[in-house]
Write a structure and sequence with these properties.
mainly beta, 4-stranded antiparallel sheet, single chain, 7-stranded mixed sheet, about 0% helix
């Protein structure tokens, strides 16, 4: 069973930065397509970013130019560097993994980490 554990969330002032981490159990992490999603209060879940095993990335429009997704296959970890945060970024951030590079869905999800941005 694949398990994902996020960390790094917290309270930050507008304009600040945070880096989220997601550690994935298992020996095939390097093959996984990894993603970050978020769900703000009263909002639907929103796509944030994805990174494929080869390092290609894709970002949601609301975070382009501010957030960076990266991965360290030696540590089974995917990161989300978040800069220039604003209150609209307040949400629970979820890490997701899938072994199928061509799928649009994700098979495995973490429990989420709270990010709160104060104005």
């Amino acid at each position: 069973q694949v398990q994902l554990v996020e960390s790094g969330g917290g309270l930050v002032q507008a304009g600040g930065s945070l880096r989220l981490s997601c550690v994935v159990s298992g020996r095939t992490f390097s093959r996984y397509r990894m993603g970050w999603f978020r769900q703000g209060p009263g909002k639907e879940r929103e796509f944030v970013a994805t990174i494929w095993s080869g390092g290609s990335t894709l970002y949601g429009d609301s975070v382009k130019g501010r957030f960076t997704i990266s991965r360290d296959n030696a540590k089974n970890t995917v990161y989300l560097q978040m800069n220039s945060l604003n209150p609209e970024d307040t949400a629970i951030y979820y890490c997701a993994a899938d072994p199928d590079p061509g799928s649009k869905g994700y098979s495995y999800w973490g429990q989420g980490t709270q990010v709160t941005v104060s104005s």
